[in-house]
Amino acid sequence: MARRVLVLTNEDLADANEVPESIRPLIDEAEEIYVVAPTLTTWMQWLTDDRDSARVSADERLRTVFDHMRSGGLKPHGEVGAENQVTAIADALAQFDADLIVLRLHVPGSEHENRREHRIAEKVRSHFDVPTIAFYFDSEGQVVEHEEA
Questions:
Q1: Residue of 1, 98, 120, 138 with fewest CB within 10 Å of its CB?
Q2: What percentage of the chain carries pLDDT values higher than 90?
Q3: Phi/psi at 132 (5° precision)
Q4: Do residues 114 and 106 make contact, with C-beta atoms less than 8 angstroms apart?
Q5: Are 87 and 120 in contact (CB under 8 A)?
Q6: Cα 142 to Cα 135: distance, rounded to the nearest angstrom
Q7: DSSP secondary structure letter of residue 16
Q8: Radius of gyration of the chain, Cα coordinates, nearest whole angstrom
Q9: φ/ψ (deg, to 5) at 94
Q10: Would you tell me the crossing angle of helices 85-95 and 120-127 to the nearest 10 degrees?
Q11: How would you classify the pairing of strands 4-9 and 100-106?
């Protein structure tokens, strides 16, 4: 049972007003939850060095996830993270000693997948010696796939 769970959230669907059912058991059993919402720039934002709107979106995503968790009686804390998701996780792990990483991602290849999400689960697993579970969400906010390692 993971006691300290680090959640990286890329999906920004505010339609579902709760923690998704498939993630809920991992979160409910945690003693402490730390959420990181990376600053996901589009190609054009990156090209024009416009990170402000991506940072605002990340902050909104973080607040939405906090609201969903708090409405279920959870007490998360966290931050907006770096654009590079591996860096965002490394920064979080420097201050939060997680024993599980949960990735909330868009379905690979979907229109909602950010270019920075490509193969991120594989990259996280190769960089950190922390068990990692990736949950992939469709455009309706439903988990359509998950993988553990």
A1: 1
A2: 37
A3: -135, 135
A4: yes
A5: no
A6: 10
A7: S
A8: 14
A9: -65, -25
A10: 40
A11: parallel
Q: Which amino acid does the sequence have at 115? A: R
Is residue 65 a contact partner of residue 37, using CB atoms and an 8 Å limit?
A: yes
**What number of other Cβ atoms are within 10 A of residue 9's Cβ?**
24
Residue 10: C-alpha distances to residues 2, 3, 129 (Å): 21, 22, 21
Specify which of 61-65, 113-117, 119-123, 127-131 reaches the highest per-range mean pLDDT.
127-131
Report the relative pairing of strands 132-137 and 4-9 from DSSP bridges.
Answer: unpaired
Q: Could you give the domains of the chain?
A: 4-148 (3.40.50.620)
**pTM confidence score:** 0.86
Strands (E), 24-76: 32-38
Can you tell me the distance from the alpha carbon of 13 to that of 64, in angstroms, rounded to the nearest whole number?
9
For residue 149, give both structure tokens. 């390692």
Closest CA to 118 of 80, 86, 79: 86
